[in-house]
Amino acid sequence: MLLDPPGMLPVHLLPHWPYLQAVDTALAGRGIPPGAVRISRTGREHGELMTMRLYWDASRTGGPAGHGGVRLVWEEETGWEYALVGLAQDQVIVAGQVDALHRIYAAPEDVAEVAERMVRTWRRPAGDFHQEWEHAARTRAAIEVFRQPSPSEPMK
Questions:
Q1: b/e sequence 71-88, b meaning 16+ C-beta within 10 Å
Q2: Rounded Cα–Cα distance for residues 97 and 77 (Å)
Q3: Is 38 within 8 Å of 6 (Cβ atoms)?
Q4: Contacts by 98-103 with C-beta closer than 8 Å and gap 24+?
Q5: Which of 17, 32, 39, 126 has the fewest Cβ atoms within 10 Å of its own Cβ atom?
Q6: What is the pLDDT of residue 89?
């Protein structure tokens, strides 16, 4: 269970924090909590794009000997991507969009099911999940409010 946002930003600067908490809870419920979690956003100059990353190293996966781990990355505009990595985190063996998760805010249980397959069997995501997270609209609205310029900020 994540207690505070992992990273350098406080929770009030991360309007997508509730989504990461829900995904983390679903992963923990399946017995596959990630070994490392990162949540962040780009700066205003890059549109305040919300992101998060989940990592499982070789010690947390059922991958073949000599292989690294699994990485899931979520971006607000594109949804979920995966990578099966080598022993060095930058050594990507295979990667791509998680096509099985059709929604940007895929239901956390669906994300956990896809992650479990990858973590336990080291196989690429399969299935066909269309359900959206029940709090997706609230999170989108929080992100939009967050992006509104403050009264002291000059208009562009």
A1: bbbbebeebbbbbbbeee
A2: 12
A3: yes
A4: 98/72, 98/125, 99/125, 100/125, 100/126, 100/127, 100/128, 100/129, 101/125, 101/129, 102/128, 102/129, 102/130, 103/79, 103/129, 103/130, 103/131, 103/132, 103/133, 103/136
A5: 126
A6: 67
pLDDT level of residue 2 (50, 70, 90 thresholds): confident
In the numeric block, the tokens 């059709």 are attached to: 102
Tokens describing residue 5 = 């946002």
Task: Return the amino acid letter for 41.
Answer: R
pLDDT one-digit tens code per residue, 85-119: 888 767 888 899 998 998 999 999 999 999 999 99
Q: Which one, of 104, 106, 111, 102, lies nearest residue 133 by Cα?
A: 106
Q: What is the pLDDT of residue 155?
A: 57
Q: pTM higher than 0.85, yes or no?
A: yes
